[in-house]
Design brief:
GO terms for molecular function: transmembrane transporter activity. The chain is mainly α and about 425 residues long. The chain has 17 helices and no strands. Helix 3 runs parallel beside helix 7.
Length: about 425
């Protein structure tokens, strides 16, 4: 974002974008660790055991976060093959679930039911439901930025990183849509299915309840375990991306105590201090569900929103401010880049706006969508930090291949642009 904005506003732009990306990645980690405990609880219920208490599930969430931190503290070369294995397992796991649901479902919905029938349990008008109906699918459309955060550790990053981002977009769309279709075709009557799950206490997520409806025993338990394995590797990969964006922000002095957080453990070449900070920070949010479950649910709901805003800012700048001066890299979308950027920015900001809407009527304190509070709080913290301190010293991302001089926007990369800028030694550590 800092390279796409004019020199005057580049520091503020990348400062805001970085904070949204940071909070989006942190909340994604918390969502995945909490989701791991929830799915494990579902596996316990399916196997005939009693439901785990909130306290036990919280402990499991924190424990799995610790395991992810430990894994991410390994040497970078070891992490490489682990993440490759994680990718294969996640795609393969979804493929197995989809095949089993299509092949073994007791009853299947017709194509007409899936694509033309509707179910409105919100209390809002139908047109409103059409808008908020896209929200559940947005979680699969996130994580594209992970390749950019890991670019410094990637061979041939100029080509491999953008290819990875494009590949992630395509893979997320195909895998996500296929999984959702498999679930929908496994539910002959959506209304009776939802009402039955609510009457039974709603302890199982709708996905796990779909497994129980569609597949004979012990199929639901096996599919749930497979989903649990997928969540484990997804959380591990998510924390890797979060640790890298956190380290980058600490390296640029954006986070408090940056001088400590940017420390690298040389034997493994990993940001150990950042990983410890993230474990403590995310664990504190996981403990929130013990005292304020509504606030915790609101926190989880804001994960995709924070990421979408951080994606939307540079994409919008690409097709507006930097439309005539954006320097293409070794791999690009060519002439399709500009129209795709226009469509993408419109999609990102429209769906981000929709994510502020409440999902049930009448709106109460229990079902209110508190995403606006989380995002507003993030903006408030970032704004106060900027006004009080950061605006006096933050000039944007620093170079890592030459020196620590802040990068300048593409349209201002000339000798005159460097006049009046402080040297790298005067940039706040």
């Amino acid at each position: 974002a800092g390279e796409l904005m004019t020199a005057r506003y580049a520091p503020l732009t990348c400062f805001i974008c970085g904070w949204f990306n940071f909070i989006g990645n942190v909340t994604s980690d918390v969502t995945l660790s909490s989701g791991f405990a929830t799915i494990l609880n579902a596996a316990m219920i399916i196997s005939g055991n009693s439901s785990l208490s909130t306290g036990v599930q919280t402990g499991i969430s924190i424990a799995i976060s610790f395991i992810w931190v430990t894994t991410n503290a390994l040497r970078i070369d070891r992490q490489g093959w682990i993440h490759t294995l994680a990718t294969v397992i996640q795609i393969g796991g979804v493929a197995i679930i989809v095949i089993v649901l299509f092949a073994m479902a007791r009853q299947q919905a017709t194509a007409e039911d899936v694509f033309t029938s509707t179910y409105n349990g919100t209390g809002f008008p139908f047109i409103y439901v059409c808008f908020i109906g896209v929200v559940p699918a947005l979680f699969s459309f996130s994580g594209y930025d992970a390749g950019a955060h890991l670019a410094e550790e990637t061979r041939d990053a100029g080509r491999a990183t953008p290819k990875g981002i494009v590949g992630t977009c395509i893979c997320s769309a195909v895998v996500g849509a296929t999984y959702l279709l498999a679930l929908l075709f496994s539910i002959p009557n959506v209304r009776s299915f939802v009402e039955s799950n609510q009457h039974s206490g709603g302890e199982l997520s709708l996905a796990i309840a779909t497994y129980q409806l569609a597949v004979p025993s012990p199929g639901p338990l096996l599919l749930t375990i497979l989903l649990l394995v997928n969540l484990y590797f997804a959380g591990m990969s998510s924390l890797t991306a979060t640790s890298r964006i956190s380290f980058a922000m600490a390296r640029d002095g954006v986070l408090p105590f940056s001088a400590i957080l940017r420390w690298i453990f040389q034997p493994t070449k990993t940001p150990i201090a950042t990983l410890i900070f993230l474990f403590i920070f995310e664990s504190s949010f996981l403990l929130l569900q013990l005292v304020a479950p509504t606030a915790f649910s609101a926190f989880l709901a804001s994960s995709t929103l924070g990421l979408q805003i951080s994606y939307g800012i540079p994409v919008l700048l690409r097709c507006t401010v930097a439309r005539n001066c954006f320097g293409l890299g070794e791999f690009s979308l060519g002439r399709f880049g500009q129209p795709i950027a226009v469509i993408s920015s419109a999609w990102l900001f429209l769906t981000s706006f929709i994510m502020f809407f409440p999902f049930q009527y009448p709106v109460t304190s229990e079902n209110m969508n508190y995403a606006v509070v989380i995002i507003g709080g993030t903006l408030l913290v970032a704004a106060v930090y900027w006004i009080v301190s950061a605006r006096h010293w933050f000039l944007g991302p620093k170079r890592t291949n030459i020196d620590s001089t802040p990068l300048l926007p593409v349209q201002d990369l000339n000798k005159e642009s460097y006049q009046g800028l402080p040297s790298s030694d005067s940039v706040r550590p």
